[in-house]
Amino acid sequence: MQKMPAWADAILVPLISLLLAALLSGLVIIGIGEDPIAAFKLMVDGALMRSAGWGYTLYYATNFMFTGLAVAVAFHARMFNIGGEGQAMLGGLGVALACLYVPWPHWSLAILGSCLAAMLFGAAWALIPAWLQAKRGSHIVITTIMFNFIAASLLNYLLVNVLRPQGAMDPATAKFPEPTHLPTFRDMFSTSETILFRGSPANVSFFFAVLACVLVWLLIWRTRLGYDIRAFGHSEPAAQYAGISPVRITVVALLISGALAGLMAVNTTQGEAERLILNSTEGAGFIGIAVALMGRSHPLGVFLAAILFGFLYQGGAELALWTNIPRELIVVIQALVILFTGALDNMVRMPLERLFLSLRREG
Amino acid sequence: MDFLTLIELLDSTVRSATPLLLACLAGLYSERAGIFDIGLEGKMLAAAFFSAAIAFMTGSAWLGLLAGIGASLVLSVIHGLASINYRGNQLISGVAINFLAAGMTVLVAEDWFSEGGRTPSLEGSARFGPIKLPFADQIADTPVVGPIYAGLLSGHSVLVYVAFAMVPVTWWVLYRSRFGLRLRAVGEAPEAVDTAGVSVIRLRYSAVIICGVLCGVAGAYLATGLQANFTKDMTANRGFIALAALIFAKWRPWYALAACLLFGFLFAIETRFQNIALFGVPLPLQLVQALPYILTVVILAGFVGKAIPPRAGGEAYVKER
């Protein structure tokens, strides 16, 4: 018998956790002498009340959908892939190589090629930790943390010594050629009279992220592989008894996870910067953790949580611009969300379970 | 490379190894008791900020140290609550603590000092200055022994000596005291400790608190000993390198010292030399930077002696009914 109805588990618990995080964030804002209500209004105004604000919100949300799905897929196999950051960096390398060295005739082909490259490179970077976890029992969390740092050093080396064009000062690749540039929301939705999404970086890869949400849902709940992954995540001995190979599931789940994290680079590197820069990931790999936790590892939840975090990111930028609240407020909110929806989940869940049990006894 | 350069390099090794060593020993207590802690970085960062801030306000490095330890302890207790009481995922809790520290330090620094997320420079008694060991000046000119004593052993801040003294202390506590035996037991088989009538919760909390104190000292050393103020993200992944050193050392104190000295040596090389060549082949600096991480993965892979973590690590203990 379930202790709580499914809706309470899926909606009420995350909502209360989110509320707790919001409440504490409000206290933090009061603590540094600012008005939380005014700050929230400013965030809403900047992120949601103008099409350009939405353009930024959805641009960030695209990144977080990919990295959130990456963490979520690994969570289903009960693995914590903390290496989304490194996998996304390598994905960026794949995108850059695909865009720079293949003469694409049109962006629609270029994005398919760069998606493939991003997935391959991201998955490749997850392969070694995955294999070590499956075969040698090396803890996936530690190895993926290490691989994040190794990825940063590798990228630094490649950008400074190999990929940087001659005479350029900053460590970045050359600008990608014109045919690889992705159409932005402004190109797609503006009419001759009204220009929408002015100057904002949201681009066609947003729809790829939405598609990825749908595909991950299909994969996890409608395919044999997804069933194997979930079975393995629930109970490894049971899965093994049912003939599911732990090595295969561990490696495959992490390859999918790495590929999803890598895809993020299509948005940032090809869609926005149009060249590969250092630190193009900007911590999005880690925000994926918060997004997956809040979204309860369900693609729909990840989609919604990614938009929420996109809003927080854009709103936070507005706050830093107009008030004395630094951008780091977002890092604090992100930490509180991870803390309450992830680590302190039982703090909310246990009293709720007791409440529902007593309600059921009376009813 | 002449002898004096070597002494300078080793001296700088000792300095960079100190925060690593403190954090590594902190992690050792926690993980030996079965609590994984990837929040070392965040605790050090919080301690670095609060020690620098309080030292600046009061002009006393010692009060700063206390404040740093206090800040680190607050995060430790959050980690304890999440991973001991509420049986949450210890890794996720650690991630949250790292972000919490990264964000809060800048937020509070901006609010208190408005200097772009840093504290003002510390001077005089607000810093832990170098301590000159007795007769350091007199024998400094003696060949070989002089530079080693005066240049390498003498002239560090008190926290450096504390850090190095913590290695034998930790060894003694872990392997020669009743508390240490129980601590190791609770990380391997908490049910056995519980059966023996010893409180698992209390033991794990004491480990988490020791971990907090040591991370606090590490952070305070960074901001008031090694450097003279707090800057944004000043721990620069040292918490993770300490974690790497802990695995490298296979959760043992003396090996932890060796691992931290090795990684400190890599730091020292990285800051001192811009171009390094090994047998005539130029080594990229980025490779030296990545070396601790690569070594850790190799060790974890079990190709060079297998690193086996404490058996009950990462799992909350639920009493049998």
Structure description:
The complex is a heterodimer of chains A (363) and B (321). Chain A has 363 residues and is mainly alpha-helical. Chain A has a domain at 64-301. Chain A has 15 helices and no strands. Chain A has helices at residues 6-31, 36-48, 51-76, 84-101, 107-136, 140-163, 185-189, 205-222, 224-234, 236-241, 246-273, 284-294, 299-322, 328-343, 345-362. In chain A, helix 3 packs parallel to helix 8 (205-222) and helix 8 (205-222) crosses helix 9 (224-234). The radius of gyration of chain A is 21 Å and the shape is globular. The two termini of chain A are 16 Å apart. With 321 residues, chain B is mostly helical. The longest helix of chain B is centred in the first third of the chain and has 30 residues, at 3-32. In chain B, 51% of the residues are buried.
Secondary structure blueprint with pairings:
The complex is a heterodimer of chains A (363) and B (321).
Chain A: H1 6-31, H2 36-48, H3 51-76, H4 84-101, H5 107-136, H6 140-163, H7 185-189, H8 205-222, H9 224-234, H10 236-241, H11 246-273, H12 284-294, H13 299-322, H14 328-343, H15 345-362
Helix pairs in contact in A: 1-14, 1-15, 2-3, 2-13, 3-8, 3-11, 3-12, 3-13, 4-5, 4-6, 4-11, 4-12, 5-6, 5-11, 8-9, 8-11, 8-13, 9-11, 12-13, 12-14, 13-14, 14-15
Chain B: H1 3-32, H2 40-58, H3 61-85, H4 90-113, E1 130-131, H5 145-153, E2 156-157, H6 158-176, H7 178-188, H8 190-195, H9 200-226, H10 238-248, H11 253-272, E3 276-278, E4 281-283, H12 285-301
